[in-house]
Amino acid sequence: MPDDILISILERVDLLYATRTCVLSKRWRNLHRFLPNVSLNCYLLVGPHCPETYRFMNYPFLMINSLDRFLRLRSGSKIRSFRLTCCLKEPLTERFERCIYFLGRLGVEELSLNCCCDRSWTYTKFYFSCQLLSEMPLLKDFKLGFCYLQPSLRIQSNSLQSLSLEYVTLCPGAIECVLSNCLRLDCLKINYCKCPSKLSICGPDLKLKSVYLSPPTGLSLE
């Protein structure tokens, strides 16, 4: 069978099992590296066999090492859609930014990032800077959850069309930063986020077609 058919078969199974097909034969060895849609979590990156105390202290560092290695192995191939659900912490910010840079080089168009794999940790102390949007020039759809969104003085994203935020703490000026610089954005969703007392939905040449806020409690929109 042609490689594209084999890759379509691998797309239908968990990434962990797709990776294991590399032992089947030389023909299968590198095919998993060309999957266009990738979904990763702590279990896939690190494994389930860590003691609980070790998990909370070192899991994030093991995870970022594994993520960095995975993306480097994908060098030269295309990732269209990337989903990551993992426990991220503030000390990992700089290394995670390098991972975002790699995703940008791999041509990611859809990105879903949940910075906590345990929903009991409602707001993880992890910061995502709007500047990182500039590192992904083809990104069209971005979903972000369980972290802090920070504004940036320098940002340019001409491709982003949809932004969904869930359980995100919006630092003052973050949304305004996105709206002022993501000129093709037409859909904005803000679900169960911690917002400033006043949220300004405005920007030059704003093309928003839909704005969804939930729950809209005590929030002043301008």
From TrEMBL:
Domain At1g61320/AtMIF1 LRR, residue spans: 71-199
Spans traversing the lipid bilayer: none
Pfam families assigned to the protein according to its UniProt record, in alphabetical order: F-box (PF00646), LRR_At1g61320_AtMIF1 (PF23622)
Residue ranges annotated for the F-box domain, each copy included: 1-31
SUPFAM superfamilies associated with the record: F-box domain
Superkingdom field: Eukaryota
Protein name, per record: Uncharacterized protein
